[in-house]
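Me: I'm a chemist; would you kindly supply a protein sequence with its C-alpha cells?

Assistant:
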Amino acid sequence: MGSDFHGVMPYLVSPIDADGVVMDTVLARLVEHLVQSGVHGLVPLGSTGEFAYLNESQRLRIVQVVIEAAAGRVPVIAGVAATTIADATAQTRRYARAGVDGVLAILEAYFPLAEPQIESYFTAIAQASDLPVVLYTNPNFQRSDLSIRSIERLAERPTIRYLKDASSNTGRLLSIMNAVGDRMQIFSASAHIPACVMLLGGVGWMAGPACVVPRPSLKLYELCRNGDWAGAIALQRRLWSINELFARHSLAACIKSGLESQGFPVGAPLPPQTSLGLAARKEIEQVLTAANEGFSP
C-alpha cells in the first residue's frame, strides 16, 4: 500500500463487549461497509475510537482486525497515543509489525511540557519506524499542543509528512501551511469545516462522522476536488446538523448510537462514559436518515 494519504478517512469506533473483548465480526463488517462505500483510508484508535479507554491488548487487536478486513484495499493509519516516549515508540513498532500503513501521533500529557519536550515525543515516534507519520494537533483536548514553530521543525523529518488539525482555526492552518510549504499535507479533523480546509489546500479529513455518513462525505470530497465550491458549501451546510449533535452529546456515544441505528451492533461507549438516552438516540437516527437521503446505500 502506498503512502499518498488523501481523501475521506473515517475514525473508526472500537466495538468492545461487556467483558472487554473486541467484537471482531462487528468491526470487520463496519470496515467492509466503509471500504465498499469508497472511503480512501481507515483510522482505528482515534478520538472516536476511544483510545484513552483501551488497554494494550485491545488496541492491538483492533488494529489487527482492521488490517485483516481492509485486506490492502485502503491504507490503515493507527493512532499512537501515550504519555511517555517509551510507550509511544513501543506502540509504533507494534503496529508497524502488524502491517499498518502509517501512524497518527497523539500526545497525552498530564504534566505541562515545554516545546522541546513535545517535539522530542513526536521525533521519537518518527524514528521508531519507517512509516509515514500524521501529527495530530487538538488544542481543545490536549494539555500540551504543538506550536506552529514546532510543526515547522518537525516537518523537516522525512517521515513526518501529514498534519491533522482539530483547532477549527483556519487562520492557524494558513500559518501552518505557509510555514511548512509542500513538506507536509494537511487533513481537517473536524467534520464541520472540511470544505474550508480543502479550499485552503488540504487533502482530506479524518473524522468520526464519516463512519455514519460515508457517501455524503465522499460526495463532499468529490465536489471540493472538482472545484464546485457552491455545491460543496451547500452539502457542508446540510451535514452541519450532525455536528450540532456532537455539541450536545459525546462524540463516541453519538457515532456508536448512529451505527447501532444503521445495523452495526458496536456496543456502548466505554465506561465511565454512558450510552445516550432514548430521545437522543431517536434524534441521531432522524438526523442521519436525513443526511443520507438521496445517497445510494
